[in-house]
Amino acid sequence: MLITKLSKNYSQVSFNEIKDYLQIDQTDTSQDSLIWSLLYASVRICEQFIDDDIVPTTNLLEVDEYLYNLVFYPYYKIFQQNITVNGITGLTGLSGQTKQVLISPRDYQMQYYKNYTSIRFSASVTCNKFLCNFNSGYSSIPYDILLAIKMKVAELYDQDRGNYTLANVQRSNAWERLLTPHRRILFDIYPNQVND
Hints:
Elements: E1 2-8, H1 15-21, H2 32-50, E2 57-64, E3 75-78, E4 84-92, E5 99-103, E6 108-112, E7 117-121, E8 129-136, H3 143-160, H4 174-179
Antiparallel strand pairs: 1-2, 2-8, 3-7, 4-5, 4-8, 6-7
Helix pairs in contact: 2-3
C-alpha cells in the first residue's frame, strides 16, 4: 500500500499574516522567497508532528497486488482523519492491456474514526491494482494550528536560518503545545507475542 502526495494547497495560510507575525513591512519584498520556503517547511514540520495533513492535499492510494489478482478486502484503513474520496478505480489485465474498472460510490462507504478513516466495500471486486484518489487536510485550518505554523516560521527565520543558536537563546516548544491536541496517536492493540 502506497500513498503519494500529488499536490498541496497552501492558500489557507496567509503569507501577509506571516510577514506581519515576523514584523516585516508588507512593502519589503526582499525576503519573500525565503519566507515562502520557511512557510512550506513549517507546514511540513507541523504535519509531521501531528502525523496528518493540515493544508488541503490531493493524494493517490495504490494497492498493487498483481501477483494475487486481488479480491478486495472488506475494508482499507487510511491513517488520516479528514479525507474525502474523489474516486476509486480498479485495474485489471497485464501492463500492455490494462483495463480500468470504476468502482461506484454505492459499492463502498466511508467510516470516520478519531485516528483513521476506513473505506468499507459492500462487495468484492477482482483486479490487479486498486487506485483511490482522495483529498485530505482541513477545509478550514483551526486557529491554534495556524498560530503554531506562524511560530515555527518565526523560529526558522530568527534562529535556524543561520544554522547556529546563540548560547543565551532557549528554544520554545510553544508550537508543539499548540499542536498536541491535534496529534494522532496510534496504539497497537495486538502486540507481538513472543513464543517460548
